[in-house]
Design goal:
Elements lengths: L2 E5 L4 H14 L11 H7 L11 E10 L2 E11 H7 L3 E9 L3 H16 L5 E4 L1 E2 L5 E2 L1 E4 L16 H7 L3 E12 L5 H11 L4 E4 L6 H16 L10 H14 L5 E6 L2 E10 L1 H5 L10 H12 L3 E9 L1 H4 L7 H15 L4 E8 L3 H9 L3 E12 L2
Parallel strand pairs: 4-5, 13-14
Antiparallel strand pairs: 1-2, 2-3, 3-4, 5-15, 6-7, 8-15, 9-14, 9-15, 10-11, 11-12, 12-13
Helix pairs in contact: 6-12, 7-8
């Protein structure tokens, strides 16, 4: 049976197939949550996504005798290249049927595309970069993905490896049950609360653009030395703030200041995947009202801690060693008050010992593992 590829830019029907192919690939998998179609299509649209102000990319759909059986994107991020100087291009949105021929053809097309633009390696999956959905799920297929996290069939990682890719990094996602916190964490929290120079407040919806700027300033400082880190641009920050207006719950956020200077942040969000699981990617005509009701009236039972960071200059001051525990305990308290039962923390890098130890201190357990792959291009 013949397999062919069509590029996203060829016509609108290919974008439709790019969105819909997941229904075939994940048929019968009760844990798969189809993303909202408008969100995926907007992210792939260079006119709507500020990522493409510093990047270029394209995508393809694979067809077997005219039936869609897989998809992929390829992208080059100039912000990443300027920071890391590693001549790396990326692939993402990889979803295929269990067929090496399909996966090989899609990955080879992405490899050729980035190589033609001077790249010497290709890495992924990133949909579209490290600040979005990252990695291929390799452990934890027994539960749905949380907000902005990937999901794959168990065979997908094997197909990537058969195509000549090797692991470069694993990411952890931590499960957490909202409830009583360990005594050590509570003690560290109480010590921070007693410090007169410490103050804390939630993100303000009214001032969301300026507060998101504060959050990302701290995030960029705290994460700047992490593997693969790329800071968000101003236009990406603006889009993030606009996107947060609907789903942000201020009680699940915290900006901590030391002597008036913003020094640490945490940001969690309700798990939107819990609210859209039955919408089949469609927000209109009735999905939007369902989503709004589930988020704002009924509420969801799960959430995800997306950002937790402390400015580097405070990280090694012994007096402020309990800041991360303080943020965790505050998050647990807020989650309990608004009715969340479980949460997901991460992702975190497998070799980030300090952060992983802090999560274990709070009772977190690894529930999912994601793998990033790389292949040299000759």
């Amino acid at each position: 049976m013949a397999i062919s590829l069509r590029e996203l830019s060829s016509n609108k029907n290919v974008l439709r197939d790019f969105l819909n192919v997941v229904d075939h690939i994940y048929a019968g998998d009760s844990n798969y949550v189809r993303p909202l179609d408008f969100d995926v299509s907007d992210r792939l649209n260079a006119k709507k996504n500020p990522f493409f102000e510093h990047a270029e990319g394209t995508g393809w759909v694979a067809y077997r005798d005219g039936t869609p059986v897989g998809r992929i994107t390829a992208q080059i991020d100039r912000e990443h290249l300027a920071r890391h100087k590693d001549d790396a291009g990326f692939f993402g949105f990889l979803d295929t049927v269990d067929d090496p021929e399909v996966a090989n053809l899609l990955l080879a097309e992405a490899e050729a595309w980035v190589k033609a633009r001077g790249m010497k390696k290709i890495r992924g999956p990133f949909s579209l970069n490290i600040n979005e959905e990252t990695g291929c799920l390799v452990e934890g297929f027994d539960s749905p993905p949380n907000a902005l996290m990937t999901y794959h069939r168990p065979y997908q990682s094997g197909l990537i490896e058969k195509a000549g890719f090797q692991k470069v990094k694993d990411l952890y996602s931590w499960g957490y049950v909202v409830g009583a916190v360990p005594p050590r964490a509570q003690k560290a929290h109480d010590e921070v609360v007693a410090m007169p120079e410490i103050s804390a407040r939630p993100i303000s919806i009214k001032n969301i653009h300026s507060d998101v700027q504060i959050v990302m300033d701290i995030f960029n400082d705290a994460w700047s030395e992490n593997w693969g880190f790329v800071p968000l641009t101003q236009n990406e920050l603006k889009k993030m703030a606009d996107d947060f207006k609907l789903i942000l719950v201020p009680e699940l956020t915290s900006i901590v200041s030391i002597n008036g200077e913003p020094a640490a942040v945490s940001l969690a969000m309700p798990n939107i995947n819990e609210a859209i699981a039955d919408l089949k990617g469609q927000l209109f005509p009735f999905g939007f009202m369902k989503l709004l009701y589930r988020l704002k009236v009924r509420g969801v039972k799960t959430g995800r801690l997306v950002i937790l960071g402390i400015r580097k200059k405070y990280r090694h001051i012994r007096r402020y060693g309990g800041l991360s525990a303080y943020l965790y305990v505050e998050m647990n308290k807020a989650a309990h008050l608004i009715g969340l039962e479980t949460g997901e923390l991460g992702w975190t890098l497998e070799d980030n010992a300090a952060i992983n130890a802090g999560i274990r201190l709070m009772g977190g357990k690894i529930v999912k593992r994601y793998r990033i792959y790389e292949k040299a291009l000759f």
